[in-house]
Write a structure and sequence with these properties.
The chain has 12 helices and 17 strands. It is of the alpha/beta class. The protein folds into 2 domains: 275 residues, FAD/NAD(P)-binding domain (3-Layer(bba) Sandwich), CATH 3.50.50.60; 133 residues, Rossmann fold (3-Layer(aba) Sandwich). Strands 1, 2, 9, 10, 11, 12 and 17 form a 7-stranded mixed β-sheet that branches. It has a 4-stranded parallel β-sheet with strand order 6-5-7-8, sandwiched between helices. β10 and β11 form a beta hairpin. α4 packs across α12 and α8 packs across α9. The longest helix is centred in the C-terminal third of the chain and has 29 residues. The radius of gyration is 23 Å and the shape is globular. The structure holds flavin-adenine dinucleotide. The site of flavin-adenine dinucleotide (FAD) has 36 residues, from α1, β2 and α12.
């Protein structure tokens, strides 16, 4: 059976950029449907980067991202940051921080000086990021201040794949007075288990007490403790609080490889916010077959069973890159999968990748994507918006090599918010013009 739904805005994609766009639409009072797989958020580390490295491929960690926007704009005039500028980027971080805080997921305040923070990673490296979960904040404070006078304990947990306390402790040794790796076992965990299971155990008093006594025994002299980001799912700050109370030292989470618990917390917080705001989330639903009749789009949502025809006035394409399935690499060229938009890309497949995997210049395929105007509307070959109310946001955008620039979240947020704001304003203008008549 085919049903029909009319709305102001359809957001295609439920990763960070899609969720952010839907949250902004709720703020404008738009009727909005968002469709996609929100589990894509569990691949994110939970850190929110603005611009960590410039130029990409160097080891220049940036203290103040804004200072490097002029260079980025010169090198990549089509980059989302060149389009948006610093103030809307910072406003975007602050907007999303408030939304998440309302759902009980606290991130550090946007720094007043616009400075990056330094975060200890599960590789034992340090990475710059702009807005970090509150549960990671003590580690950032130590790295920004007196870490050279502190002994850091790093706790590994049996059963968690991809996290070695010894590797982290060794990697970060030069930043601290001393580092002590410890390994804890949670009750009943004998083999590798998904991080969700460990997060559940850490939120349980029996599991937490077992962890505390093993850390006390192994790292009693430590001044600060870092542990993998599995401190409960939706009550992580309370778990960190209990650890700090028992151990009497600052405790912080270290972001881990996917599936990521901080990413799952983001997913849960967005889902709660959207449900509270009356935004319909079509989870795990694919959108296809767009048609435009001059006023509204009609798109088909694959339901199981049946189909839903969605008739929005505007569409936000937040479908991601190859992994999200927003872009698809055919044998000879890269295509956009829903609207078949023009894609900025190297002229031939042989130019997609550099011959050296770790080439300092990166791989040209990572600059491929959708080219837009200043409000993130995809352009045709004559530089005109393809549709007045079709927008593309997030990692699908061209010139956006976010893993190397450490700029993923900032790009997602500023493009999503600029696009939704433009759409809301143009609807308001149309309504006003209608009243005038
Ligand atoms: C491994 C990993 C680590 C990361 N670490 C960081 C980090 O440290 N710091 C940081 O700032 N950011 C990080 N990020 C997030 C990243 O920076 C981007 O912000 C994020 O991926 C933005 O993606 P997106 O929402 O544009 O696309 P994606 O996250 O790829 O989401 C795309 C969405 O589109 C949906 N979709 C695709 N096609 C359709 C269709 N036809 N119909 C319906 N839905 C569709 C998919 O199901 C998915 O929901 C990380 C991401 C990953 C994957």
């Amino acid at each position: 059976m085919t049903e029909e739904r009319v709305c102001d805005l359809l957001v295609i994609g439920a990763g960070l950029s899609g969720m952010a766009a839907a949250a902004r639409a709720a703020g404008h009072g738009l009727s909005c449907v968002v469709a996609g797989n929100p589990s894509s958020l569990t691949f994110s580390s939970g850190l929110m980067d603005y611009l960590g490295i410039y130029p990409a491929g160097t080891s220049c960690f940036l203290k103040v991202p804004e200072k490097h926007l002029t260079d980025l704009e010169k090198d990549f005039p089509g980059h989302a940051y060149a389009i948006a500028g610093d103030a809307p980027i910072v406003e975007g971080f602050e907007f999303i921080r408030k939304i998440l805080a309302r759902e009980g997921l606290n991130y550090t305040r946007v720094p007043s000086q616009g400075e990056n923070r330094y975060v200890l990673t599960a590789m034992g490296t340090i990475k710059p990021s702009f807005m970090v979960p509150e549960t990671m904040a003590s580690g950032c404070r130590a790295l920004a201040g007196d870490s050279g006078s502190l002994t850091l304990a790093v706790a590994g947990i049996k059963g968690l794949q991809g996290f070695s306390a010894a590797q982290v402790a060794e990697g970060v040794k030069s930043k601290f007075l001393d580092t002590i790796p410890v390994r804890a076992e949670l009750p009943g965990v004998r083999t590798v288990v998904p991080p969700q299971i460990l997060a559940g155990q850490m939120a349980d008093p029996e599991g937490l007490n077992a962890f505390i006594s093993q850390v006390r025994a192994g790292a009693g002299k430590a001044d600060i403790l870092g542990l993998p980001a599995v401190c409960g799912i939706d009550n992580s700050e309370a778990v960190i609080g209990r650890l700090q109370e028992a151990l009497k030292i600052p405790v912080f989470e270290i972001p881990c490889s996917p599936p990521s618990i901080p990413g799952l917390r983001l997913k849960n917080a967005f889902e709660r916010y959207l449900s509270r705001s009356g935004i319909a989330l079509l989870s795990n639903t694919r959108i296809k077959d767009p048609v435009f009749d001059g006023t509204r789009f009609t798109l088909t949502a694959d339901l199981d069973p049946g189909e839903l025809k969605i008739r929005p006035r505007g569409v936000i394409l937040a479908t991601g890159r190859f992994f999200g399935n927003g872009l698809h690499a055919r044998r000879e060229r890269i295509v956009e999968t829903v609207f078949h938009l023009d894609i900025v890309q190297p002229l031939g497949r042989n130019l997609w990748h550099d011959s050296s995997f770790l080439s300092p210049g990166g791989h040209k395929i990572n600059q491929a994507g959708v080219r837009t105007d200043k409000v993130f509307r995809p352009l045709d070959e004559r530089d005109r918006p393809v549709y007045t109310h079709l927008y593309a946001v997030g990692s699908i955008l061209a010139y956006n090599d976010w893993p190397r620039l450490k700029s993923g979240s900032g790009t997602a947020l500023v493009s999503a918010f600029t696009a939704v704001d433009h759409f809301a304003e143009s609807l308001a203008d149309t309504a006003e013009a209608g009243h005038g008549c």
